[in-house]
Amino acid sequence: MTVGIYYVPEAYSTDAPKLMGRNAAGESFLKGFLKYSRKNDDLWIQVEREEHARDFEKKVASNGRKENVRAFTNASLGNAKTPGVVYFPGPGIGQHATMRRFYGDSAWSLCGITHTTSSATAMDAISDLLTAPVQPWDAVICTSNAVKKNVEQLLESKADYLLERLGATKIVMPNLPVVPLGIHAEEFSFPPAKRQTARIELGATDDSLVVLYTGRLSFHAKAHPLAMYQALELASKQTNKSIILLECGWHANDYIKNAFAEAASITCPSVRVINLDGRVATERANAWASADVFCSLSDNIQETFGIVPLEAMAAGLPVIVSDWDGYKDTVRDGVDGYRIPTIGPKPGLGGDLAQNHALGIDTYDMYCGYSSSLIAMHSQKLTQAFINLFTSAELRQAMGAAGKERARLNYDWRVIIPRYEDLWQSLSELRIRAKSEGLKESRVWPARLDPTISFSHYPTTVLGLDTLLTMTHPTVSEAIGKINQYKNLSMIAFASLIFPTQEEIQNMLEVAALSGGDPVKAESLIAVITEPRRAFALRGLAWLTKLGIFHFS
Question: What is the DSSP letter of 38?
Fold first, then answer.
């Protein structure tokens, strides 16, 4: 089983000042892939630029892989047939399915993955899958059951539109398997000595309870913190515990940073709030090592999976999360921690939000922010969850241990990468089976037609097999000499891609010379060319006519 990775460095790296979830997920996946995927003679990648291949080679070497890196670009896209599957770090496989048409729909399989599905770009990419030539042997991995339902709703809406507009009833869908993101569980295991030094650096005493939130600190695009602040204040007062809230992440700007500080000072004055820069590895490690409880109350439509609760579970922390998107799949309520019920408006009450975003009246940030402002947590259950964990070290230890085992057994890349490979294998098998059953496939990209077809009505005459051509020079050698002279002209040489070979030109001219100056059918001229090259040679006769070597009747 082989796969080609569509490699753009930015999609697999967290080395950027604006760290996004998709970057972290991509970096973690690639590390897991290089660590746990099956070994082959070659590692295949599709790149946009050659320097991207060099960057990938460095990653391969640094991860101890010995395979040759084989890279292809759009200019050599047919090489995708060798790995048989190409994996893309996003859902937009439709455009790649369209480009694949030049080689046939069954030439290879395509596999994408969902990250955020609420952005205009992502929603368009998903809805376009129904009009792009994707096939049943293609797939878009959904990282949670919640996001799969979201994708299905988008596709169902597009299908309804196509039925209404065009009467379309045949819908071809890609696979939509649910495969979670993975983590490197061993990276979140810290010895007691590390915990002690981390807590000392934070100024946390033995009696302090450290609650950790980690991730992008954005009230409008990740998780609104108000419910967490309110519940921590109540739990602190009811338990008489010294509570430290550790917010480890980054703010996009000072406005957002000040908004967090203002809300915390008003709603949880009894709680000591500490900010750490989540983009700095040492600060992230200190955050994980020092915490007693993890909390992430995602309420945002841009979230689809949520990796940080799994990281917290791997760190042995009991987790308190919202009953939201991918958290529903990963966290077992009452076992690994608590999933706090959420409530939102009934379907059909947010049309104005969608319209204002679609028309450019509201930015994407405002669209997400308005939507999340309508989602609420069950405040009493949230407060009680904190109280339960604050008052029982045994409960914290039991839930933390359960979560740690779950993360290790079910979500480590060691077990997730084989699931990817099984999926890719099944896609290849579907594709191969379809070809063996006599699949009829078109190789036409309707919006990118062969110009000799789409503009065939422009010339007076179309050069076909029956077209009569007359050589304009008395001998083949004179004609060849003139061609070689013309081929060096800048205005001719730029189009060298379309030139027939020297041998092909020689052979066709020799046929023409045998006519003694009489016209010869194009079909006869190309008969001396090998079968696979005859179409190319027929086209080349038009170029030779342009040079004045032939004239047409």
Answer: P
